[in-house]
Specification:
alpha/beta, Rossmann fold, elongated, 14 strands, 38% helix, binds adenosine-5'-triphosphate, single chain, 4-stranded antiparallel sheet, Alpha-Beta Plaits, binds magnesium ion
Length: 321
């Protein structure tokens, strides 16, 4: 069953089209991820789905309700974890959680119980009485997620849950997302970490320049990628004409980007190494290493989006400073 249905959804900012008529569905109980570079439209989409931004056009259905006209009802059953925290600096961690719970009409006793148990789950029990402004970045992110979960929503929206925090906190957050999903909560998240998309998500939507260019099960992406065989050969001396004679000798192969001292050969079927080794020998090229490369989701990403990984990596480093 589809718990989220999005049809032809668009957002214009003064004529600038940030999201361009996107359509996709999210199944109940799955972890669905939007993967895309900076400025792709991830936050804008999440904001429209959660009622923080008004769509310019299109339709949203969430749990059988109209996600635009009935957004107030929808907001009671969803949790929102924005990329920048929306909590109060002067309140303690505990008070922030209790306050969020009160917004959902949860009774005092239960509010406090849930706040305590969430602090514990996120290893924040010892810092629950410190003001939020004294929290580190990772602690802030964890508390913001805890706040989004306080009313036990059916769907949790997380905007870049693991960006810009340390490895251990990121791991803890991933574990929380898995646990929560294990208990039946549907998760919609955005990320530009391919690792997160691969590890956490059942399905991924690739979003680039405001358009969803592909939605696929992670399993299927990987299976398709495995069909392609890639072999890397390394050598010591460089020969500028080598690539062309390789391509004319083996017309079934294509060449992949690689370093100056190596060459990557790809083919859709099985590849035998010996004919290549003979070819290199005839050319007088001494091969120091030959190995099979398993395509990663990273390569799938490059194939699907045409965006080079260097660009994503730079964005990653530039963020969260
Ligand atoms: N309030 C706004 N006014 C004008 N333009 C906006 C506004 N919000 C977003 N945009 C533009 O819309 C595009 C999509 O932005 P969005 O924040 O959705 O991207 P994103 O995929 O979340 O990127 P990031 O990975 O950096 O978080 C960008 O070009 C951005 O500059
Ligand atoms: Mg964003």
């Amino acid at each position: 069953m589809d718990i989220i249905k999005v049809k032809d959804l668009s957002k214009d900012f003064d004529g600038f089209k940030a999201v361009k008529s996107i359509s996709f569905n999210v199944e109940k109980g799955e972890v669905f991820g939007f993967l895309g570079p900076n400025g792709a439209g991830k936050t804008t989409t999440i904001n429209m789905l959660t009622g923080l931004a008004k769509p310019s056009s299109g339709e949203i259905m969430i749990a059988g309700r109209d996600g635009i006209r009935e957004i107030k009802d929808v907001q009671r059953i969803i949790g929102i974890v924005p990329d920048e925290s929306n909590l109060y600096d002067e309140m303690s961690g505990f008070e922030n959680l209790v306050f969020c719970a009160s917004l959902y009409g949860i009774k005092k006793k239960l509010r406090e119980q849930r706040a305590e148990s969430l602090l514990k789950q996120f290893s924040l029990e010892d810092t629950g009485d410190r003001p939020f402004k004294a929290y580190s970045k990772g602690m802030k992110r964890k508390l913001t997620i805890a706040a989004g979960m306080i009313h036990e929503p059916e769907i949790l929206f997380l905007d870049e849950p693991t960006t810009g925090i340390d490895v251990e906190s990121a791991r803890q957050i991933r574990r929380m997302i898995e646990e929560l999903n294990g208990k039946g909560t549907t998760i919609f998240l955005t990320t530009h970490y391919i690792e997160d998309a691969e590890r956490l998500c059942h399905r991924i939507g690739f979003i680039v320049s405001g358009k969803v260019i592909k939605v696929s099960r992670v399993q299927d992406l990987m299976a398709n990628a495995q069909e392609e065989k890639i072999v890397e050969f390394r050598w010591n001396s460089k020969d500028p004409g080598l690539e062309n004679s390789l391509l004319s000798t083996f017309p079934e192969i294509t060449l992949k980007p690689s370093s100056a001292q190596s060459i990557r050969v790809s083919s859709q079927g099985e590849m035998e190494l010996m004919p290549f080794m003979r070819f290199f020998e005839e050319q007088g090229v001494k091969i120091t290493e030959a190995k099979i490369i398993r395509p990663s989701l990273e390569e799938v990403f490059v194939n699907v989006t045409g965006i080079e990984l260097d660009r994503l990596k730079k964005e990653k480093e530039g963020k969260g400073k």
